[in-house]
UniProtKB/TrEMBL annotation:
It is found in: Cell membrane. This is Ribose/xylose/arabinose/galactoside ABC-type transport system permease subunit. PANTHER family: ABC TRANSPORTER PERMEASE PROTEIN YPHD-RELATED-RELATED (PTHR32196), RIBOSE IMPORT PERMEASE PROTEIN RBSC (PTHR32196:SF72). Its main location: membrane.
Length: 331
């Protein structure tokens, strides 16, 4: 008769307030508040109604562009074509409007181009299993090249902003109407992300895609949808930028590359501890808009602003990777 040795049960940690976890989850919110207070103190004009409106308007357009990217990274993939799709959208609209076409037709063609790039990314990455970074670099380069070809390497001015202009320019007090629309869009996205199985599948794909597929979930179809969504939203952001700038800009996407990755990865620390999420991205976008506005008022050079952006991106990547390793080590 064999003896059975008793096994010591692992002690359960006592429930209590975890200061470190709280700081990590809500640190981005604190940083945003600190930046607002500091810039308002150093430059009182920072808190003026006009500047607040400009910050919210620019942040809203960026937020539209980065929403699809958030879920792609949350699913464990990458898309670096989003900013080139936005640039292509501005050039398609400017080119068609300057040629006599109406804004509805121009916007429809631009959105179709965004869907096409997203579908191409999805087919190659999700359908054929090709590496997302290489593919989206290639498709982004293609979109950027087409954008440059439309204007022969230069911007295209527009005499009218069509029906999109009033949407971009309308304000409700100091709050742009577009900011209210984007807030509603992100609220819907939050519900899909945190309150539906669709959102759960996105995060499960990053953790173990094979297990998701074996569970009967069509992970490739979900990933393809995410790429199409990213391309479409980038094209929408391009239409808003075209109206805001009254022109098509073939190289405008470059300035959004670091901002997009920084907002998503740094925002991944907010609330979900290393998991990119829509609320974190929205806070990250506003933080970057506040930083850009405050730095301009303080007279920072473009190189100084780029250094700060790069530092925030490095911090975001490091924090997300560190948090994911810590989380998986305790599973």
């Amino acid at each position: 008769m064999s003896a059975v040795m008793p096994t010591a049960s692992r002690p359960v940690p006592a429930a209590g307030f975890d200061v470190r976890r709280f700081v990590v989850r809500f640190g981005l919110f604190f940083l945003l508040a600190i930046l607002v207070v500091v810039f308002s103190w150093l430059r009182p004009s920072f808190a003026s109604a006009g500047n607040v409106t400009d910050i919210l308007r620019s942040a809203s357009i960026s937020a539209v562009m980065f929403l699809g990217l958030t879920w792609i990274i949350a699913a464990g993939e990458i898309d670096v074509s989003f900013m080139s799709v936005a640039a292509l959208s501005t050039m398609i609209i400017a080119g068609l409007v300057s040629s006599g076409f109406g804004w509805p037709v121009a916007v429809l063609v631009a959105l179709s181009a965004g869907v096409a790039v997203g579908l191409l990314n999805g087919l190659l990455v999700a359908g054929m299993g090709l590496p997302a970074l290489v593919i989206t670099i290639a498709t982004g380069g293609l979109a950027g090249s087409v954008a440059a070809a439309i204007g022969k390497g230069t911007s295209i001015p527009m005499a009218t902003t069509g029906f999109v202009g009033p949407i971009v320019d309308a304000d409700l007090g100091i709050v742009p109407v577009i900011a209210i629309v984007v807030a509603a869009l992100y609220a819907v996205a939050w519900v899909l992300q945190d309150r539906t199985t669709f959102g759960h599948y996105i995060y499960a794909m990053e953790q173990n895609r094979r297990a998701v597929v074996e569970a009967g979930v069509r992970a490739n179809r979900i990933l393809m949808m995410l790429y199409v969504l990213s391309g479409t939203l980038s094209a929408v952001a391009g239409a808003l930028l075209a109206a805001d700038l009254s022109s098509g800009q073939p190289y405008i996407g470059t300035s959004y590359f670091i901002d997009g990755l920084t907002a998503v990865l740094l925002g991944g620390m907010a609330l979900k501890m290393g998991k990119p999420n829509v609320i974190g991205t929205l806070v990250g976008v506003v933080l970057l808009a506040v930083l850009l506005s405050g730095a301009a008022l303080l007279g920072w050079t473009d190189s100084q602003r780029q250094i700060v952006r790069a530092a925030l991106l490095i911090a975001g990547v490091a924090l997300v990777v560190w948090t994911r390793r810590k989380t998986r080590a305790h599973l």
